[in-house]
Amino acid sequence: MVVTKADNMTDMYASLRSNVSMLGQILGDTMRTHLGDSFLEKVEQIRKLAKDSRRGDQAAREQMLELLTALPDEELVPFAKAFNQFLNLANLSEQFHTISRNCDELVCVPDPVEQLLGRMLNGRVDQTKMLDCLKTLDIDLVLTAHPTEISRRTLIQKYAAIVDCLTEQENDQLSDRERQQISLRLRQLIAQIWHTNEIRRERPTPVDEARWGLSTIEESLWHAVPDFLRQLNDQVQQRTGQQLPIDIAPVRFSSWMGGDRDGNPFVTAKVTQEVLDRNRHAAARLFLKDIVLLVGELSMEEANDELKAYTNNSCEPYRHVLRSIRQRLRDTIDYLNARIEGHNPEVDKSSLIWQESDLKAPLEMLYKSLTDCGMRLIANGLLLDILRRLACFGIHMLRLDIRQDASRHSDVLAELTRYLGMGDFNHWDETEKQAFLLRELSNRRPLIPSNWQPSADVAEVLNTCRLIAKHPAKALGSYVISMAGKPSDVLTVLLLLKETGCSHPMRVVPLFETLSDLNNAAACITDLLDIDWYRGYTKGMQEVMIGYSDSAKDAGVMAAAWAQYHAQEQLVAVCKQAGVKLTLFHGRGGSIGRGGGPAHKAILSQPPGSVDGRIRVTEQGEMIRFKFGLPKLAVQSLALYTSAVLEATLLPPPEPKQEWRDCMQRIAEESVGAYRGIVRDEPDFVAYFRAATPEVELGKLPLGSRPAKRRVDGGIESLRAIPWIFAWSQNRLMLPAWLGAGEALQAACERGEMGLLQEMEREWPFFSTRISMLEMVYAKAEPNLARYYETCLVPKDLHHLGETLRQRLDLGIKVVLELTKSDSLMAHTPWNRESVKLRNPYIDPLNFLQTELLARTRKETTETPASEHVQLALMLTIAGVAAGMRNTG
């Protein structure tokens, strides 16, 4: 019997649905126990009516709405919680199938590294070249906090335990008793989840967010990194006969949590100091656990001459060294505990693990001794895992980036130059600024007077720079300048670092994030690299950050994507001309409207030459959990990133044809006009947006440490990209991820370019990825639900705008289906389509209930505020829709 791909997919769907049904049954039993049969029957009735409503049954829809609007206050919270938790359990089932059935973000496939090595070494790439590239890969994944990461850490741990149970259930050799124990454990975990408050009582602090990031490493990545490298080594050895270096680290991790102060007044120098200490503390604690285990393992006596001499011929030389490391790690933890508690203890640094070499050198000595003495098998066990963790995480766990807005730096110099009687730095032109900055950068005398008393905002910027100066370079990543646009923005930061005593050359990275900044990026970097002093400072390396969120919010996804692509091409050319190695830092979000989507496809759709073995990418909030929250899932994600960067470097995509470029330029111009025509020029747009979405209510939720707006008094232009996307995903219109694209594609069709578009979709990875992402958001958009929000919440004189937006959405769907020659959206990604289909009957009731609760809260007055039940239920519906939509912000 021949098993087809369709058969495999059918089996997968059946297995996925079986687990979803089983977990849902347990959740139902939990609700029945605590809320009774009648409540559970009502939940099940609404679920079935939602399913029928999906099939077009208008009577079922009306009956469902009647039941929802009639829910008494005391049932609002448990009802919202029921559907919310079912969606979380559905996510878990899908995550489990991702790791148990070898699926990537779109469809089930074999191991991506193994596939790539087979293709490369089949005559396409020289083996030596491939190995050299693999050994020097530099993939830096930057973990960032995310205001739309709803789930609390305590719940995330319980979700992970459920996946462990699902994994155990797959074992065919389990006895009946063992199956009963697993079933009991699942019931216990789901009951614990049901009785745990899902919503944070208070907004998390930046330190809380940093601790959340560390928990992902401790619970998942700490185990995944050596597992992935072991698998990678086995695959390379099988294909080439060679082993990878023991200190290989193709993927490393940085963080913005506790370092990103752009628009977040709660991230101060004091907070950053605590986060740096906590990062080191976490690393020391995890290394200590490993060393304790290694002391138990390395009981052998035979050693090489170096180790014998080092330990004075100890009868247990390996344990002798490890016990010393163990004590130094314990002392390091005690020292860091005192610092975290606010003390500044005097300490002999030689007694601590102070530098990476303090840990690396003795462990490498043990490794060499074991291999010299014929014990390579032992050396390549836990000891090798520790060395590879050290290569990846260092002793600081995460390299902390610092991010600040360009205006905050120039304000420091403006206040200083006014104090010194030199005029106002902010009023000088670019030439004057550069001349002043270069003169001071080369000047040996201090610029900042010791008796100067700066304002609080200026003092905070200087304190951050002094903090950077105190910490070793390996504890820190890049200094990212938001809203950068001119060479002086970079030189200003370099001067501030010099004046505060920073002796190590920190990477200072301009972030180009609006359409005009992206278009000007190459000119800015050209001017920078033309400065002799700056060229000397870079030592042949230049990092540039590309902003996806704000550029898409500024110009729409299509125009922003083309500006990002074009900017990267130009930056590659500029740096190549200057003989400088370029590292591009991609500031992607989780949602399509913020540059999100499958990482593998995104990397392979970059301009040829833009990756070149080096890349930095942000990973945000909920996507950190979805990609790295479980060890096996993290191994797959690491494999996807490694294979994509290796392929983009050695088998880059072709240069786009000139006619493709010309067509894309026309599309970009059409799309930005259509997008801004609504978002900027439509006088009713802001009023409609705030009425038709829970944007105002989102700002009140305790979701993240950062305010929703950069300026409290600002309008839509000051709203951050994350709540902008999040609000539109809640009412299911998904507007930021498609507005302008369909209109531009339709205009191209009317010019007779459909054949050209189809050629671009077939042959140009950049364009095919854009169309694929459009399909995904079109499939997730629900115009009928958006219309219901409008009916219930929006004044009638604004309804015309909603009708216009839904017509634009319908236009986009039709033109994409025509372009792809498909009858349905996501026909080529059935796994994703099935995922959306599975969730809809559970998301829909939450959306309908959310509109009812928004209507109630908006009617509240000082005398009759909305009840606590209504407020909490509203938060739960927002959390539930976010869980169902997955990539929400």
Output the keywords.
single chain, 889 residues, mainly alpha, eight-stranded parallel β-barrel, 37 helices, 65% helix, disordered N terminus
Explain what the structure shows.
This protein is mainly alpha-helical and 889 residues long. Helix content is 65%, strand content 6%. The chain contains 37 helices and eight strands. An eight-stranded parallel barrel has the order 1-2-3-4-5-6-7-8, surrounded by eight helices. Strand 7, helix 24 and strand 8 form a beta-alpha-beta unit. The longest helix is centred in the N-terminal third of the chain and has 35 residues, at 206-240. The chain is globular. The two termini are 46 Å apart.
β-strand percent reads 5-15%
Find the structural class using helix and strand composition.
Answer: mainly alpha
Low-confidence spans: pLDDT under 50, at least 5 residues?
Answer: 1-7, 104-108, 591-596
Q: What is the radius of gyration?
A: 28 Å
User: Between the first and last Cα atoms, what is the distance in angstroms?
Assistant: 46 Å
Q: So what's the overall shape?
A: globular
- Write out the strand line-up for the largest beta sheet, numbering strands in chain order: 1-2-3-4-5-6-7-8
How many helices? The count is 37
Would you tell me the overall average pLDDT? 89
Q: Give the proportion of residues in helices.
A: 55-70%
Q: Major sheet, described briefly?
A: 8 strands, parallel, barrel
Record field, number of beta strands? 8
Catalytic activity: oxaloacetate + phosphate = phosphoenolpyruvate + hydrogencarbonate
EC number: 4.1.1.31
InterPro entries: PEP_COase, PEP_COase_bac/pln-type, PEP_COase_Lys_AS, PEPCASE_His_AS, Pyrv/PenolPyrv_kinase-like_dom
Active site: 146, 553
